[in-house]
């Protein structure tokens, strides 16, 4: 699932947002892709989720009973949440 305009999808999974907060899912996934513990991500990665999006707002917008689509870059990754699906791809120039 990739093309030159969207970059390579490196992670895609469905979540039950009543069990896992979107902010945790994003941090945990990027930490896994980077090979570090989520607690150490800000040090190893040089940035935090909050540097790119307000985690509390993300958790408020994306809920188990809603159908929200949101997308944002985090350094060399592009995060997209469509309903219950979290997709993380490489590359900054996504739309």
TrEMBL record:
InterPro entries: HalOD1 (IPR040624). Residues 19-83 form the Halobacterial output domain. This is Halobacterial output domain-containing protein. It comes from Natrarchaeobius chitinivorans.
């Amino acid at each position: 699932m990739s093309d030159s305009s969207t970059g390579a999808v490196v992670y895609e999974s469905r979540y039950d947002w009543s069990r896992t907060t979107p902010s945790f899912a994003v941090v945990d996934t990027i930490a896994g892709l980077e090979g570090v513990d989520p607690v150490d991500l800000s040090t190893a990665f040089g940035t935090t989720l909050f540097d790119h999006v307000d985690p509390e707002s993300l958790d408020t917008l994306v809920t188990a009973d809603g159908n929200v689509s949101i997308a944002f870059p985090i350094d060399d990754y592009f995060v997209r949440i469509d309903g219950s699906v979290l997709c993380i791809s490489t590359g900054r120039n996504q739309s």
